Amino acid sequence: MPSPVPRTTAFRRRPSFRGRRVRRRAALPGAALVLVLLAGCAPAPEADDRPVVVTTFTVLADIAQNVAGGHLRVESITKVGAEIHGYEPTPGDVRVTANADLILDNGLGLESWFERFVGELDVPHTVVSDDVDPIPIASDAYAGRPNPHAWMSPLEARDYVDAMVAAFADLDPAHAADFRANGDAYNVKLDEVHDELAAGLESLPPGQRALVTCEGAFSYLARDAGLTEAYLWPVNAEQQSTPGQIADVIDFVKENDVAAVFCESTVSDSAMRQVAGATGADFGGVLYVDSLSLPDGPVPTYLDLLRHDVRTIVAGLSGTGGDS
Ligand SMILES: [Zn+2]
């Protein structure tokens, strides 16, 4: 069976602030050699001498940019639309990251490529999910491991913000007060988005509160919103859906009379369209999770991403949306 998530009847309360730490990794023996080799092909120094923060994906980069204000230069290793779970870093990624002053990664097993990658570099590194209370994956080969998609809950994202505030203050103490102020202001926006999501999703009738997606990326949002979750595969690292997974989701959609099913922007939607075809459910549209869109697309920022997804989910499940 796909994996229903325990649900609550009300939205969760906002958590209080918790402190955190910056992880620093000792250089491995090969790191000096890597850096010497990289030095020969480093780009010419630029006029921009702000400290450089590198993130593993675009969602983290957007949050970091909001916390950093203009004081830090923020870059994402993976670009818009990339499949981030099984990403293969390029030599250019290694070069940029080796010259960074701080690396931010999601953790919770999201970036399966990242441990080896960062282990070769002598750059301070912060796991922004350290204070998240993880939800374990319920089924399949990943059962029991933490679901990495904690940013899909704006309440959990507050922990990401606070982690960045602390890490940036360590990196650039002269601007620590600005980072705190930026983080506080961004957390207010996250609370506003949470309240919008609550209002939108609470409008769904009790019989239309099942969320069916390709990847099991919505466990945190489903928990916050009191939705039942089902999916084709738990994480995109094994996105090849099996006939058994498809059959289980078809059964779930039929048993729960689900009005619409969805798929994420970074994977093929063909298996989910097969589910829609076999059940009569609408294909409710594209949800964004692992990547923002380009600036002129539907979700150029993380806050846009959350709002887009909730609008799409509410429209699909209430029978007023979908593009099938
Ligand atoms: Zn994902």
From TrEMBL:
This is Manganese transport system substrate-binding protein. InterPro entries: AdhesinB (IPR006129), Bact_metal-bind_prot9 (IPR050492), Lipoprotein_PsaA-like (IPR006128), ZnuA-like (IPR006127). Residues 1-47 form the signal peptide. It is found in: Cell envelope. The keyword Signal applies. Belongs to the bacterial solute-binding protein 9 family. One of its GO terms (cellular component) is cell envelope. One of its GO terms (molecular function) is metal ion binding. Gene3D superfamilies: Nitrogenase molybdenum iron protein domain. It comes from Labedella gwakjiensis.
